Amino acid sequence: MLVIKNIYKTFNVGTINEKTALEDVSLTLEDGDFVTVIGGNGAGKSTLLNAIAGTWLVDSGSIAIDGIDVTKTPEFKRAKYLGRVFQDPMLGTAANMQIDENLALAARRGKFRGLRSGISQAERNFYKEHLKTLDLGLEDRLSSKVGLLSGGQRQALTLLMASLEKPKLLLLDEHTAALDPKTAAKILAKTDEIVEKDHLTTLMITHNMKDAIHHGNRLIMMDGGHIILDIKGEEKKKLTVEDLLAKFAIASGGELDNDRMILSK
Question: Using CB atoms within 10 A of its CB, is residue 72 exposed (0-12), middle (13-18) or buried (19+)?
């Protein structure tokens, strides 16, 4: 479903601030893979997701989604293949639009929209059924402005919007980092449910080592713009935080020096 071959990305080329964010990164995701991505600050995690999404084009290498080469395809044209949830609950939704209007935008992403205006009753019923699965009472608030929702409600809505049309690839960029622990756990549980039910190929960035271990069928760790660990199958099922720290030390040649990750143990 996703094939990345030997991609490189360097920012501020030729200046004192030159930074190689991705260096010869290759990664293949099979249909239905749920891969958690972990690593310290500056490891290249968000750069990898942004490269896949087309937020910026890679310097070299190739990216293919479901057999389609999108290496030089601009971000807006890749949107029809992707669902994405950001760390900030304020991103991914239009605050001044209603809940049903936001869902309508998500449902029509990448499709020919024509001249028909408004949202049909059939569409509203469809949105209500999906909102009920969130168990937040949002199905009774279709006309509410999204800007009035709490951070957790808004992130749950964004997750639903990102997965509504069953994208070929779901990108989750630390989508629970800005939430309190109880709300974060609820969003992660909903994430697992949606990914499993719709068999979505998923990449989820997290700083939380426990979340990286307990979710998905595969874990990759990045450091210095490289993928240094790729753990799956039985090895991942038996993995502990202590194991992960030890593997990082061996693969990177040094101890993990990232307070945010260590504190999330």
Answer: exposed
User: Quick count: other Cβ atoms within 10 Å of Cβ 43?
Assistant: 24
Strands 19-29 and 2-11: antiparallel
CATH C-level class of 2-96+166-263? alpha beta
Retrieve residue 38's tokens: 């972990």
The first and second tokens of residue 88, run together, are 């900030």
Q: How is the chain split into domains, by residue range?
A: 2-96+166-263
For the stretch 195-208, what's the b/e string if a residue is b when 16 or more beta carbons lie within 10 angstroms of its beta carbon?
beeeebbbbbbbbb
Contacts of residue 254, defined as CB under 8 A and 6 or more positions apart, other chains included, come to none
C-alpha angle 178-179-184 in degrees, rounded to nearest 5 = 125
Q: What is the bridge-based pairing of β-strands 202-205 and 34-39?
A: parallel
Rounded Cα distance, 58 and 70, in Å = 11
| Burial readout 24-42 (b: 16 or more C-beta within 10 A, e: otherwise) | ebebebeeebbbbbbbbee
- Report whether 61 contacts 7 (CB < 8 A): yes
- Predicted TM-score (pTM) of the model is 0.89
Neighbouring residues of 185: CB distance < 8 A, sequence distance ≥ 6 = none
Q: What is the DSSP letter of 95?
A: T
CA distance 180 to 183: 5
Query: Is the CA virtual torsion 17, 254, 9, 168 positive or negative?
Result: negative
Closest of 151, 209, 213 to residue 176, by C-alpha: 151
| Element counts in the chain: helices (H) and strands (E) | 10, 10
Dump pLDDT digits (tens) for 186-241. Answer: 899 999 999 999 999 999 999 899 999 999 999 999 999 999 999 999 999 999 99
pLDDT digits (tens, 9 = 90+) for 226-240: 999 999 999 999 999
